[in-house]
Amino acid sequence: MDGPAIATSGLTMRFNGFTAVDGVDLNIEKGELFGLLGPNGAGKSTIIKMLTTMLRPSAGGAAVWGFDIGRERDAVRNSIGVVFQDPSVDSQLSGRENLDFHGRMYGMDRKTREARVAEVLELVDLTEKANVLMEDYSGGMQRRLEIARGLMHHPHVLFLDEPTLGLDAQTRRYIWRYILKMNQEEGVTVVLTTHYMEEADHLCERVAIIDQGKIVALDTPENLKDLIGADIVTLEVDDGISEEAVEAFSKFDGVEEVEVVEAVDQSGSILNLSVDRGEARIPEIVLGACRVGVKIRSVSMHEPTLEDVFLKFTGKKIREAESAGAGRMAAVQSRMRTRRH
Amino acid sequence: MPKVNVYAIYSLWLREMIRFFRLKSRVFGSLAPPFFFLAFLGFGFRSAAMPAIPEGVDYISFLAPGIIGMTLLFSSTFGGLSMLWDREFGFLREIMVAPVSRLSIVIGRTAGGVTTAVMQGLIILVPGMVMGLEISGLGGFLLSLVFMVLIATTFNSLGLAFASRMKDMSGFSLIMNFMVFPLFLLSGALFPISNLPTWLRSLSYLDPLTYGVDGLRGSLVGVSAFPLALDLAILAACCAGALGLGAYLFEKSDVE
Predict the structure, then answer these.
(1) Contact B98 A90 (CB under 8 A)
(2) How many Å apart are CA B120 and CA B167, to the nearest integer?
(3) Which CATH number applies to A6-219: 3.40.50.10420, 3.40.50.1370, 3.40.50.300, 3.30.450.40?
(4) Quick check: B13 and B117 in contact, CB under 8 A?
């Protein structure tokens, strides 16, 4: 097939007047490991559901491996594998039986199936658990089997909807390894959704940041982080902080942006300074803070993360975006921003 | 005309078979009510004179085909409704995202549900025979198999139709108690429907299971209220209607 693995144009989904996905234009190349990053409810899963023919778009369209998602549904379905966000195995069947069922549904004959079952089980290190019933699998093992199942019929594109949701850190690392391995070994194009920044950063060649149904940024994780450029220096200070102090901080050499976050315990404040070459500026900042009478409790610095990128493009942190509407976090974190010109 | 994918149908059927033989405790559990009905009603009314039972037929021979009908009714309706479980536990998405027409999915599921229901009907036949049911002959037995398949297909499809219209499992017990139980009691499985008052009897005539039970009685024991050909024709028509309805509503249903 020529052209990109996935091409969408104006892809839109409305539910009773609410626009979940709003005119998404996206090209995903063959062999790419592509991430859709955004808070829960941003529309990532809805995009996946449309691309996997589970939902029909309200407007716009898309081609997956060259097939139209509206008119050539079976051809699309033959080209893709899907690992759903929620479990979708038959818990009364063994791992092997689940894979066998899948293989038959995709028209694979016994010989092909047996060879492939062995291959995909090997890929996710479940060969020894093949004959164990799914109900006796752990959550992580179940997820691995679902990944194996998604690959069973040699799909061109594999969709992973929140592949590590609810898994512990160690299991998450394993799943990451399997995803990278299959992308490299099987050459399969991978599209995954996640609301874990470090997951998108670690795995994806390109990331689309999604907020309220729209793509707000799309690039490699490195390029996205370069947009922030500067390092983030975080100061924890006693008491509240005055407008004048913020103004003073923003005038320091190398400081590009100042953000004030009230500490959760209300007894102090947290300042995030975007600073070019932060490690060299910390002494100056600390001295400067003393001059304007701000008492510093602690200083830390980090290089830009996708979290910072998300913040830059949407004006909110990803966790905040998730609880938007609940209003709980919004009360805890109020923000004043000044920008140095 | 949607494509029918034989391999996928086989896959869905095989899944039901594996589950049937694996979940033995559930199978025994679902066979317990019909078995107790058969045993206690059979022994309890053994020597009672039930009006309208044909001369020379004892109550157990009358009752056993009815209880087989009951077994088929309950297990096949349950089989159709089990799509609710697949939806609840996410497996339905795995089925729906495969490149398989919904018609194939309906056929595969129904074939599996019907096979398990008929197997349970045959299991109940055994204690019936131990208690004194005498089968009229091989021809009658084979004909009864046809009736069993038709009964199971009818109610499996109705179960699927209901499951396609339901969002969650809350309606399940409603259907079991207010649809399946009345269908069972009206069908004449336990007593001749001619003993019912006229207004109630007319409801029995609307119950597909009435013709199923009568057909089972006719083929296994050799006595029936209606001509066997009429039983067969009406039941086959109900079966076709239910199958169409189930397939149509499943086609229209949402995956999510």
Answers:
(1) no
(2) 29
(3) 3.40.50.300
(4) no
Report pLDDT for A138: 92
On whether the A226-339 domain is CATH 3.30.70.260, my answer is yes
CA dihedral of residues B92, B97, B100, B106 (deg, nearest 10): 20
Find the Cα–Cα–Cα–Cα dihedral A217, A81, A189, A118, rounded to 10°: 140
Mutate to test the interface with A, among B7, B94, B102, B109 (most CBs of A within 10 A): B94
pTM of the model: 0.84
Of residues A49, A90, A105, nearest to B100 (C-beta): A105
Distance in angstroms (rounded) separating the CA atoms of residues A49 and A58: 13
Instruction: Give domain limits for chain A.
Output: 6-219, 226-339
| Beta-carbon separation of B97 and A106 below 8 A | no
pLDDT tens for A294-310 read: 888 888 888 888 888 88
Could you give the ipTM of this predicted complex? 0.90
Answer whether B151's CB lies under 8 Å from B72's CB: yes
Tokens of A41: 């409810």
How close are the terminal C-alpha atoms of chain A, in Å? 50
Percent of chain A at pLDDT exceeding 90? 53
Structure confidence at residue A266 as a pLDDT band (50, 70, 90): low
